Amino acid sequence: MTRPGPAARPAGAPPAEKAKALWPSTKRILGRLRPHRMLVTVVLVASAVSVAFMAVAPRILGHGTNIIFDGVVGSMLPAGTTKEQAVDGLRASGQGQLADMVSGMDVTPGAGIDFTELGTVLLGVLALYVASSVFAWCSAYVLNIVVQSVIRRLRAEVERKVHRLPLRYFDSHSRGDLLSRVTNDIDNLSQAMQQTMSQLIQSVLTVVGILAMMLVISPLLAMIAVLTIPVSVVVTALIARRSRRHFTDQWRSTGVVGGQVEEAFTGHELVTVFGRTDEVQSRFDDENERLYQASYRAQFVSGLVMPAVMFLGNLNYVAVAVIGGVRVASGTMTLGDVQAFIQYSRQFTQPLSQIGSMVNLLQSGVASAERVFEVLDEEEEIPDPSTAKSPETRCGRVVFEDVTFRYDPDVPLIEDLSLVAEPGQMVAIVGPTGAGKTTLVNLVLRFYELDSGRITLDGVDIGDMTRDDLRSRIGMVLQDAWLFGGTIRDNIAYGNPDATEEEIHEAARVSFVDRFAHSLPDGYDTVLDEDGGNISAGEKQLVTIARAFLAKPSLLILDEATSSVDTRTELLVQHATAALRTDRTSFVIAHRLSTIREADLIVVMEGGQIVEKGTHDDLLASHGAYYDLYNSQFVGASRS
């Protein structure tokens, strides 16, 4: 019995949770950079040097413009005169505005352009841009190492976290959604960090560096440019607040779509047989449309940031050009300074536009980070005891002492259950669906923790053992045979990676895998699909039984393990199980009562309680619950 999952959210219903604040998740992401402080320092220093070189270059290039302009104007003035004489001559001729402009220039009347000095200036600017590019490349290279290291560590944390999550979590969460968080969301976070962190560092440093140069050239024009910053921040914040919710919806819908695709592909044959293809397609179309709408709204709203910031930047550019032109005409600024300042104003608004354009990536990355952090923040299994105990023997004696367990605190399930399974006994657990049969063995494996009571294995409370020690003593064969991509030999050896070739072959012979393995072209080296699709269902089950045999457990759990094999193979498996049970306990969960007639103890469960227990003959003679089950399967079947 497994715990039912949560009810599906109705189509068109609002999301179950609101988007979280941007800063807490961003702070957690930045906190993961602490182990890489030295590399982050290298990134910041390299970026600062790159920005410094880039910021100085326009000022020097402006000096080159002054050389050209001074040379052109100087060649138009009479040679042999001083600048003061030339200015006085212009005023005397009624050209006062031109005289004001010339008075603010470093001009020599009669002299042309100094190409030597101009060449030196241009080579210097070229060297600055080359150096700036080299340091920017170094910054990006080191930052890539940092980001990928953070993401690699995050993936490892999530992987380890998944193994520490209780089975209760997987019962209540979609497997497709969990896969989406582990794959899509982490990949999206990686992309967002890679693209935004480099640009964000460069943009912030560029704003600081350019602002410093603008203040040096003209505090008045710098103040005009600075007015763009608060307006841009307000606009960006207003738009980001609206887009954050849409990005959270987008990645939640991505998880739902992933879950539906995974479910449809896994059960493709069943969907086809029952003719539910159209229904599955319709459900997919509905969720795909919901994902489209969420993605469209997220990208549309966040995409408004960059045009808004660019519009403000253009207004700033116009203001700088007009005021700068007036000041050149009045002689209070040189043409080169105005040209440099206009270039700076463009460079000043460009990083603001880049920051605006990164909002959608940042919002998307934070939304994915929130989903990943939700997994990392989930409550884990109770830690293993610091001073764990381990049974001294491997006999397999299991004792349930007043065990009580509920999935839901308000819904009774197993109450004060007591049971003793002696070494070597085959204990069969039967009962109707939902009686608690599978729950009972899940408690033995500590997939769930008891509400009260205790279970002991060979005299030791399983709560005092480590889970690895406990589960290393238990072999389990499920109703659904699970195989992975690999050879038959690899799948059998999964039960004991240190097993020898002889031990693997012996387990295969005992479980009758040897019979069909030799008939395959590559024998034990036959590569199985991930779902074992190239062998029959019964053969897959035999492989899983061989795997359990190879583990040599002291306790064997068979959960409807023979349901997929034919009658003849079922008898062979029963003989093999009997040989394996020597000095080992076996719990057999069965609906087909023909498989448990020889059981040493049959436990009949109803509603989480043991209503009967005894041997097959004793229970039939008592005419109780087992008698009714038996008659419903055999006597009723024969009459029909």
What does this structure look like?
The chain has helices at 22-31, 37-76, 83-92, 96-103, 115-164, 167-172, 175-217, 219-226, 228-266, 268-273, 277-302, 305-329, 335-357, 359-376, 437-444, 467-472, 488-493, 501-510, 513-517, 537-550, 567-580, 616-622, 625-639, and strands at residues 398-405, 414-421, 426-430, 452-457, 460-461, 474-477, 486-487, 527-528, 555-559, 585-589, 601-606, 609-614. With 640 residues, it is of the alpha/beta class. The strands form 3 sheets. The protein has a 6-stranded mixed sheet with strand order 6-9-10-3-11-12, with helices on both faces. A 4-stranded antiparallel sheet has the order 2-1-4-5, with no helix packed on it. Strands 7-8 form a two-stranded antiparallel ribbon. Helix 5 (115-164) packs antiparallel against helix 7, helix 7 (175-217) packs antiparallel against helix 9 (228-266) and helix 18 (501-510) packs across helix 20.
- C-alpha end-to-end distance: 30 Å
Detail the poorly predicted runs: 1-19, 636-640
**Helicity, as a percent range:** 55-70%
CATH class of the largest domain: Alpha Beta
CATH topology descriptor of the largest domain = Rossmann fold
- Major beta sheet, strand line-up: 6-9-10-3-11-12
Largest sheet: 6 strands, mixed
Number of helices: 23
Shape: elongated
Named at the architecture level, the CATH assignment of the largest domain is: 3-Layer(aba) Sandwich
Tell me briefly what this model is.
One of its GO terms (molecular function) is ATP binding. This protein has helices spanning 22-31, 37-76, 83-92, 96-103, 115-164, 167-172, 175-217, 219-226, 228-266, 268-273, 277-302, 305-329, 335-357, 359-376, 437-444, 467-472, 488-493, 501-510, 513-517, 537-550, 567-580, 616-622, 625-639, and strands at residues 398-405, 414-421, 426-430, 452-457, 460-461, 474-477, 486-487, 527-528, 555-559, 585-589, 601-606, 609-614. The chain is an alpha/beta fold and 640 residues long.
